[in-house]
Structures are given as structure tokens and as C-alpha cells.
């Protein structure tokens, strides 16, 4: 698809950015079109459904803030996938790392609740990252010594993590009145929220990390070395770049990001550690990273779009009597569109 | 060379086969007769045109000129499928079996008369019949992944026999085999010959040729330089034909200066490695390189050159022995450590082993020295410094690079230039150069060699792996011959000649190995 932009527009938006935007626009439209047929087939009016979906999310400040709230963990878990992917690692373990991060942070919240907020929150942030990193270390190490593919191990460890949380909650942490969750966190253990909405400091974390990710990959020595490893591990190794060290550290950093997302969920959103609190947030991050091709701008856009779909989907359940499963159909369609890469959304390689 | 009389009609006759690739004529009017009940050995250096010739015969390439006759009738082979239909079968160097399937299943896949419903029992019976007849016993039910390389090769040959091939082409079949397996293979070939099969054997190893071939054809630079019956061949004659009289006209103009007295830049003491898969293990390798010295390693590729370079660079671990750089024991330390000692590496495959395809040339130039080019503790890169280093090196070496091209878009020769430039830019103390001039045109090749000589004059030690004997003799202060992972000969170039080195390269004097 040839797009000719006027010189003025080219000055304001560099062509690469314009191309990216147009690409995502096409992908979104195509997905919505395909999903429209599914709505039609099930006897619903697609136009009215979409109308509901968008007015409920983008039509009001409240709706918009709810989209941002839903977007926070997705943005961070998508980064947890994007970073390792730059050195050629496929981290499917965001879900498990998120749980572990939440558990570590919860431990901090319950143990040190008498501390002032800034100490407690800093501690919980670090603990959350540590938890995710610990959960990513084993797959990373096994991969680095050439033993087991990280895709398999990270995926399988996802099933273990929630069980550990269950063990901790049932065995030690559950509140006096409810066995499936902890007592509510002290207010010092809650991330601050803004503008009277549920949007919390996690959004700031996510955006800063996204910026940092972009900067590191583009400008720093480490970004260069990581791109070299991702581009040709054999050559990188022969050029004297410490391959094993990078594989382990980057994977653990990815885990730490997912762990941070978990910490942000329990501290910023729920204020309590719930059994099975994340219904596939880690997988959602994986999906978003793939939809975005691992690019920072794309991650921002796609996590926003996916957040609209999930929050809007909740509403569709009520107003249009659609099962929540249709949201999964919609997301699956989006993935199909991206993976199929029809020629009109293809990235131009120059 | 005219003793080619034969009563029978050749099974396959190649007439005037010519094939030109950009910048090189791979085959230049090649004639070849292959008779039934004969083993025909095709000899030649790497790059002599052997592989191209058989690939044309097997339908992978199309000849620019010439024709192929089968039983006296011209046939047109456009694809391997047609070659197989014409009863021509080939066993490739890298065996082509599916590891997860059994022997019988692998063979069934290849059969031309395979029905829609598999009768594996019947196929297994056929395998048993044929394999007993020729001494190719394998268990048809065994999974290929559990077979040794030698057994896999048997399966490949069985595949051809069961699919009614009459001409069997074997591309360096003994390269991956242990000595006793080689013997077994040669006796199998003898059996096949008795039963009327024609066999075309491609090899570097003179000993095997003289042991089993009936007819020998030598290729050099794409041309047939000799074709005769076994009785007319001697080792000396074959070596002379293979390597030719082409020693003249390649001088760098600088006399090698021997600096044996200085502390060596590199010492390998009794180094052993353990190879994985089809690689070659190094065995008791001893090597010393002094500053200002180029030590050449001659050998047919696949005899341990890659492993030798990788051990020195630190990519591969040695299981025994010591590696000493500039007097420090650095055995099995990381590549970064070895590189920090001033070691450079120019590998045989610049795209796969030295560059990152989707990065620009400039970014690639920085990769070996990220520490040096980092600013503010790594938060940014000093691309100006990279650029000025490149410009400096360009001036010294006399080639130019376009810095903002993507590495993947460069031609093989330009990519090689990029790697040479990068590795020479920082006045290395040890240079590992593997097939330095492969893929370079004549002028760049000379420039690259001059760069190496210049580095030597500045006191660098060079480990120089090559198959080009002229180049080795012209450049090296000392010359080693590598065969089967061992150093089988060590000379000053003035004390030896191409023929002796050629003999050692082809393994026809292996007893020499015990001396080293």
C-alpha cells in the first residue's frame, strides 16, 4: 500500500512513524471487520455493539480512566516479553512471574506495614521485581547452559506459580474472614491513585519503563550488544559479547518487569492479594508484544487497544447479552490478522 | 592420459559440460565417462569444480553448455527428480535422513513405486535382501536418530539401491567415517561394482582412490587435467595434477623476518577437544606463534581448522592441554578475555560468524569493541570514534566501506572486507585468519594479504588457515598441515614444496603423525 504524505505532514511526523500508525490502523479495522461478521452470525447488531463498546470506554472520562487502569499491567507485562525477545528469548512466563512478584510484594506489605509509605512502596517494588526475576532465573539458566528451551520452561512454570500463591494464602496469609484472600493492605502499602479515579502510579512506572526500554535499545552500549545477540548469537559470541551472561540477566530483567506488574496489580488495583487474581494478564502481555512486533510505540498502542476491548467487552456482556468468551475470539482474530500479515498491513522493509 | 580404451558403452557420458558463476568458471568443457562395473574417482582441490559437476549431473544446476548421455542417448536432466528417474542416485556429504523415522520409513519415502498404503514389512524384507547381498546390514526397524554416521550412510546407499539407481554418486563419503568404517564402505563399493553398478566417488583422499578406484579423473580450476586407469596412476602424479605448477607470481615483496626469540603470542600445549556431531576433534595439538610471525595451517577443510580457530578464540573448550597467550595461561577462558588480550578473528563465513545481518556496517564495526566506544558508562555510544577508526583502517588497508548500508545487503566480498577492516583496526597482537581471501576479488585479496603482512611487521602473530597452497607458501613463516584433527607436518616453507604438503593434506602419509 503506497501512502503519499504531503511534505508538511512528513516534517511533523517522520514517515516511519506515519507508516507504523497506518499499519496499526489497518490491523485494527480489519480485526473489527472480521469480528463484526461473528457478531452478525450470532444475531447481534455489530454497529450497535461497537457503539456501546466505544462510548463506554472512550465516551467519558470515567470510561477512559478505566481503560488506563486495565492497560497498566498489560503494558508492563508486554515489556516483560519484549525485552527478552530482543536477545532472541521467548518469555511465555509473564503470568507466573507476575504471580510471584505479587506474592513477594504482598509479603513485604504484610510484614512491614508499620513503615511509612515511601519506604514500604519502594521495598514492595523491589520485592515484586525480585520475585519475578527469581521465577525467570531457572528457565534462563537452563537455556544459557544449552539444556532446555526457555519457551517450554517458562510456559510450564506458569501453572506452578498460582499454586504457590494458593499455598501461601490458605496456609499463612488469609484474612480472618475470608480464606481466598489476604487482609486488606495498609494504606501505606497502596500505590497512590490520581484524579479521583482508579488510575494508579503503576501507569507512570509503565510509561517510564517503556521510554527506558526504547532508549536503552536505541542508544546504549547494552542495547547494541543485545541487538547483536538477537541478530546473530554466533557472531555476537565470537565478537566477544558475553552471551550467557546476557541471556540470564535479560531474562531475569524480563521476569522482574512481570513481577513489577504483579506488584502494581495487588498494591495499586486490588489492595489485597486474591487467589487467582490475574486471569491471563501475563498472556495478554505476550499477545500485545506480538501484535506490536516488540516495538515500543506499538506496545503502547496495542496495550491501549486491547484494554479498550477488554473493558468494553465487560460492558457488552451486560448490554448485548454476549458471553465474555467473545472477547477472546476478538483477541484471537487480532492475532490472526497480525500473524497472517496481509500485504496491506505489511511493514515496508527498506 | 589417453589410455581410456574401454569396450563397453559408458553408462553415463558427460560431454563438454560448462558452467559459469559470476567471476568464476566452475566447469570448463568437462568430459567424463562413467562405465558400469567401475568405480570412478573424481579428484581435485576444494573449488576445483567437482561438486558443481555432480550437481549438474544430479539436476541441481543447469549447465550453460554441454550434454549428458545415458547409455548412449542424450538425456535432459532438469531436476533431481528427473535424475532419479534416469537411475542416477546421489549420497550427499550431509546425510539427508529424517532422524525421527525408522530406517524402513526413510527408505520407503524415497521409493518411486511407493503405494498409498505402506507395507513396511514388505519394504523391510526388501531391505534385508539387498543389505545382505552387499554387506550393508542395518536393522530396518531402528530409528535413524539412533544410528551412527556410518550406519546412516549405509541407509543412504540402500535408499539408492532400492530405488533402482544404476549410477551412485558419493560426495566425500569417507570424510565423516572412522578408519574401520572406511574399510567397510570400500568393500561395499567393491561388491556393488561386481554387480554392475557404476560408482562416482568424489574425494580428496589419495589413499582411498588408489585402493579402490578403477578409473581416476582429476579436476583443477574447472578443467579435466587428467583421466586414466588405476594402473596408470601414482601418488606423485595425482598430487602434481591436483595442485598444479602454479607457485610463481604471488610474492608480497616482503621477506619474512623470523623472530623466534621473543615471547610467543600464542602457545597451544597438547590441546585436545571433543567434537560434537560431524565435527572433528583436535588431538594433541601443539602450536607456537611468535610476534611477527605468520603460521600457516594447510589442510582440506573439515580436518579440524574450525575447531582450532574456535579453541584459540575461546568459543570451544579444550578437554586437555593448555592455551597460553602472551605468557598468561588463558585455557578455557571467555572470548571477551581472549579478545581483550588483543586477539582478532576473521572467520571463514563472515555472514554467519562475524556480523549481525540486520545492523548497519557502522554498528557492526563497533561490536568487538563496545567497551571502548561506550560513553557515559554505556548510556551512549561514541559513533564518531567508530567512524574515525574505520576511516583510519580504510586508509591503511586501501578499501572503502559504505558505513550506513545494512550488512545483509553487502556482497560476500564486501562483507569479508568489513570484517577484515574491523579485526585489523586496533593493532591486534594475535590474528586468527581463516580463509582470509575466500570470496575476495584479486585486488582485494592482495590488499588483505598485504594487511596481514603489515600486521606482522608491526609485531602481530598470525594464525593463518587456508586451502590455497600458493597463498600459504607466499605468506607464511612456518607451515603446519592439519589432517583429521592432528598436526601431521610442520615445515619452513623453504624446506618443503606443494607436493609434500599436498600429500600430507590428503592423508597419504599418516605415519608422519606419530612424529609430532
What order do the helices and strands come in, and which of them pair?
The complex is a heterodimer of chains A (350) and B (516).
Chain A: H1 7-12, H2 15-41, H3 46-58, H4 61-85, H5 94-111, H6 117-144, H7 150-173, H8 202-219, H9 221-231, H10 233-238, H11 243-270, H12 281-291, H13 296-319, H14 325-340
Helix pairs in contact in A: 2-14, 3-4, 3-13, 4-8, 4-11, 4-12, 4-13, 5-6, 5-7, 5-11, 5-12, 6-7, 6-11, 8-9, 12-13, 13-14
Chain B: E1 12-21, E2 24-34, E3 38-43, H1 50-57, E4 65-70, E5 73-75, H2 80-85, E6 88-91, H3 103-110, H4 120-134, H5 149-162, E7 167-171, H6 179-194, E8 198-203, H7 206-212, E9 215-220, E10 223-229, H8 235-243, E11 266-272, E12 285-289, E13 293-298, H9 305-313, E14 320-325, E15 328-329, H10 335-340, E16 343-346, H11 350-353, H12 361-366, H13 370-373, E17 374-375, E18 380-381, H14 383-397, H15 412-424, E19 430-434, H16 442-457, E20 461-465, H17 469-475, E21 478-483, E22 486-491, H18 498-505
Parallel strand pairs in B: 3-8, 3-9, 6-7, 7-8, 13-20, 13-21, 16-19, 19-20
Antiparallel strand pairs in B: 1-2, 1-4, 4-5, 9-10, 11-12, 11-14, 14-15, 17-18, 21-22
What structural category do the secondary elements of chain B indicate?
alpha/beta
Low-confidence stretches of chain A: 1-5, 344-350
CATH architecture verdict of the largest domain in chain B: 3-Layer(aba) Sandwich
Radius of gyration of chain A: 21 Å
Q: Order of strands across the biggest sheet of chain B?
A: 6-7-8-3-9-10
The helix/strand order of chain A is: HHHHHHHHHHHHHH
- Named CATH topology of chain A: ABC transporter involved in vitamin B12 uptake, BtuC
Compute the number of strand runs of chain A.
0
Q: What general outline of chain A do the C-alpha atoms trace?
A: globular
Identify the CATH class of the largest domain in chain B. Alpha Beta
Oligomer: heterodimer
Overall average pLDDT of chain A = 87
